Each structure stands twice: as C-alpha cells, then as structure tokens.
Amino acid sequence: MYLYDEYDKSVVRQRIADFRDATERRLSGVLSEEEFKLVRQMNGVYLQLHAYMLRVAIPYGSLNSRQLHRLAHIARVYDKGYGHFTTRQNIQFNWPQLQQMPDILEELAGVDMHAIQTSGNVIRNITADHFAGATADEVDDPRPIAELIRQWSTLHPEFSFLPRKFKIAVTASAKDRTAVKFHDIGLVLHEDQTSGRGFKVYVGGGLGRTPFVGHKIREFVPEAQLLAYIEAILRTYNELGRRDNAFKARIKILVHEMGADAFGELVEQEFSRIQPMVDDLPTKELERIRQRFITPDFADLSDTDLGLERAKAEDPEFKRWVSRNCSTHKIPGYAIVGVSLKDHGAIPGDITAEAMDQLAELGKLYSHDEIRATHEQNLVLPHVKKRDLYVVWRGLQAAGLATTNLGQASDIISCPGLDYCVLANARSIPIAQAIAQRFADRKREDLVGALKIRISGCINACGHHHAGHIGILGVDRKGEEMYQLSLGGSGAEDAAISQSTGRGFDADGIVDAVDTVVGIYLDHRHEGENFLEAYRRIGPQPFKEALYGTA
Q1: Beta strand 480-487 pairing with 470-477
Q2: Domain spanning 306-398: which CATH class is it, in words?
Q3: Spatial contact of 110 and 119, defined as CB atoms under 8 Å apart
Q4: Extents of the domains making up the chain
Q5: Could you tell me what percentage of the chain is helix, strand and coil, using 3-state DSSP and rounding each to the nearest 5?
Q6: Is CATH 3.40.30.10 correct for 413-548?
Q7: CATH architecture of 6-109
Q8: Quick count: other Cβ atoms within 10 Å of Cβ 262?
Q9: For labelling, which of 338, 446, 484, 526 has a CA lying 20 to 30 Å from the CA of 146?
Q10: Three-class SS of residue 92?
Q11: Using CA atoms, how far apart are residues 37 and 81, in angstroms rounded to an integer?
Q12: What is the C-alpha separation between 377 and 348, in angstroms, rounded?
C-alpha cells in the first residue's frame, strides 16, 4: 500500500473546499446544473437516472482495512447500506444526496481516499493487476509505476480537458488480468535480454460502440523513459483527437483512422523532443514512491501446511473453496484468496456495509491489512497464510462472501443498466441475476467450467460485453428492451472482440439463448477444452443454427 504524504493530503483538502463551495452555489441556484456539471464530473459526481452517484477512486485496486471500514460507514450513513464495485477498480455509491457529497469527500480524505478524476475527459483511475505484488508470474510489482502515473496525471494542466476520457492499465505478468489491450494505453512490464526492464506499449484499445483491440506501438520503453513516452502519446492525442463529435473522440478512433504505424511515428517524433528535457526525474520519483509503499513482512513458512491438508480432507466444502478461490502466491506458505461478489442471483459487484466491515477485519488480521478490487467486480485478499485459510473461509462464510464461482458462468460482469443509468437502453442486472440462477446447480456449473459472461445495458459497453466469451448487449427496439447475443470475445492476453450471432431476444429469450449456447458447447467440446477454445475451433455456425434454425 502507498502512504499519502502531506502534499497528497493538501491537494485533496483543497479540492474538497473548492467542491463544497461549488455545491453550495448549485444548491442555492447560483449555478445551473449545466454550469455545475463540469465541476461535479471532475470530483466523481454523476447525475444518474434517479439520483446523484459518487464514484470513488481505488488506485490500482488497493485498499487497507481502515479504508474499507470507511467505505462501509459511508454506505451505511449516506447511502442505502451498500456499495457497488466497478470494472475500473472503483466503488460507486448510488443514492447520496448532493448536499452530502462534500461531507462524504471529507470522510474519504480522512483515510487517504478521494474521487478526483473518476469522471470527465481526463486520465481516469489507473488500474493494475489485482494480484500485483503477490503472484509469482510477474516481473515485478507494477503498482509503484501505476502510482507514479497517478501522481503525474492528477490535475495535470495539459491533460485536464482531453477530447474524451482516457484509461491506462499496467501489468507485469504474461497472464493478463487487467484487460490491458482494451485500454487507451496498456503497459506490460517485461525483461529484455539486452536492454533490461521496460514496457510494451499498446494504444487505441477500447470497447463502446466501436470496439478495438489495442495496437502495440513500442516493444520496449525503458522504465526511466516511461512518463515521457506516455506524455508523447497524450500530446499527440490531445492535438489530433476530435472534439466535434463525442462518439469519435476516443484515441481508438484516431489510431484506427490514421493507422497504428502512422500514429506511432508521430508519438516517436514527440518523444524525441520530450526525452532530452526529462533527465532522470522519473527514476528519482519512482524510488521515492517505492519507499512509501508498505511491503508485507512475510513469514518464513513451508509451502506445505499439514493443518490445511487435514482441513481439506475433513471438509469437502472447504476443499472446494480452496480449489476454486485460492491462487498460488509468490511466497511459500501463502495463498491469494479470491472473494466473489456474485452469489447466485446477487447483483454483480454489490456488497453490503456489514460485509465490507467483516472483510476489512479479515484483511487486517490475515492479509497484511490489504484488500484488492478486481476489474471483474470481485475482491481479493492478496497475502493469506495457508495455515489461516480455514478461519478466513469461515469468516467469509459468515459475511456471505464464500461463493465458489470465480471465473465460472455465474461470475458475470454487469453494468448497472436501466435500473440506474441515464444512458442505458435496457436493464442489465435482472438479466445477470436470471442467468446466474440457471447455473445455481453446482454440478452443472462445474461441468461447464471456465466461462466469462458479460452484460451491457447500452452501446457504451460498461459491462464489457465485447470481451465476453458470451456477450449480451441491451438495446431499445421501438420501446421494448431487447438483447443482442455475441460470442468469442476475450479480455485476456488473447484479446478478441465477440461477434454478433444475429437478431436479438427479449428478456426471457436471452436467458434461454445463453442456455442454448452452453448446451451446444457441451455437445461439441473436446476433453479439457474450455468454451473459448471450443468456439474458436468449431466457429459460430453450430451456435447460430441452434439459436435461429437452419433457414
């Protein structure tokens, strides 16, 4: 975890004071809603379908127990007793009153949190691998780099009014848990045999109405030159990105229309002008930031814990949970614990204040005071001793957070849809709940295995439907909610955009359609083959025939 210094705190305090003044002027009528819009967006406040909503930043997904307890307090006092984790490792509160927003920001500042740049045409919350610093398959912990980018980009005068919102993701693993190729800039830390440590750089990825997989424009940028290279990308985009059409303003459109090679050449030209002026400031800053990260004091343990093995042998439910929700840690004797927020029939990403408090205590006692948010709307306890897994599991059971469906069919990403969002065309949450209920039979879900279902209530694709093995898009057809089905997407290192199967379905029909697709997969798969592998082998035709007939 990164510890705020006094400069961090002063920036947040000043922003709250400014926002409190603007809120008071809005409530008194001095400011119109349109005049207030820019101010509230820069402070994470949205006007949703029924109420204002506050989006709180969780940089690179890292929380401590004090912060999670404070989020529970905010949910209890200012909201309706719950929060909603998003696909950018943020948390949203859907029901605060506008006059309460400055007080909530004060509450957040008390635990080194804020809502700056969670909205607006700025560089949004920097995301990273939720296993960062814990997994053995990474080159190094990418979070200090993410923090360096966060500090550099926060309130950056040149990039505070970009053509459109801008998203950056960082990972240091060959296994992509960040959807790095679906970001405006995706950074992959790796080791080069001759040049040392640096970053692969992808640009122009994104979802929405025109989805694109990002293009690699640099195989290697040295760590010390990374900020200069990012600045070169942003300057190029800021100058050439369209401002006359919001639907064509994202960098993905610019890269697509220019071509990745031509865009990359302009970036290189700008980079050559910037780099001589930078000196080694990024290196010094990165070292300062690393010094302010709390490194867990790991115990010297054996990787085999006899107590754990006995508990697994005595309790089949615990054994199942370990196999489904626990991942290999880089330190012997530890495990990474996944926490599903997708109990069958629950609202994806929602968590009650009570469950937040219980999870915060588990994180404090058993995970070196760390909790992580994932881009799949779940949570993680990153550093749990194997000998503590049984008591952690029991604690998660008491909190209602021990569901064993991570990565399976009912672990669905869903946007809030028409239940909350003013932009939505159709409901997402009830569809996600209905599909999850179809897989409430554990044997059936186990039979299906790894399957990523993603649901969006409009073309903006906040539910990442383009990146789903099975993607669902809600649309409005003459006042009726309809749902388009697409197949074959992936947000992992083999990133791909799902392809539409054909005409849409109504709310009941789309749930049956998912059942049909799963049935075809089970009929055609080879031994050990997951859904995406089977789909890529047999193609879309068997699924289309089952869904629409042969005519």
Answers
A1: antiparallel
A2: alpha beta
A3: no
A4: 6-109, 142-291, 306-398, 413-548
A5: 45, 20, 40
A6: no
A7: Alpha-Beta Complex (3.90)
A8: 11
A9: 338
A10: strand
A11: 27
A12: 7
- 297: its two tokens: 């004091």
Tokens standing for 463?
A: 């539910």
Q: Determine the 3-state secondary structure of 486 from DSSP.
A: strand
> In whole angstroms, what is the distance from residue 154 CA to residue 272 CA?
24
C-alpha neighbours within 13 Å on the C-beta side of residue 453: 31
Report the distance separating Cα 507 and Cα 505, nearest Å.
Answer: 7
- pLDDT (tens digit, 9 = 90+) per residue, 106-151? 999 999 999 999 999 999 999 999 999 999 999 999 999 999 999 9
- The pTM of this model reads 0.97
Beta bridge partners of 169: 127, 186
Alpha helices (H) along 297-376: 306-314, 316-325, 353-366
* Kind plus residue range of the DSSP H or E element containing 53: strand 52-56
| Residue 267 identity | V
What are 16-30's pLDDT values in tens digits?
999 999 999 999 999
Listed in order, strand segments (DSSP E) in 241-368 are 326-328, 334-339, 350-352
What is the per-residue pLDDT across 470-494, written as a single tens digit (0 to 9) for each? 999 999 999 999 999 999 999 999 9
Per this entry, what is the length of the chain?
551
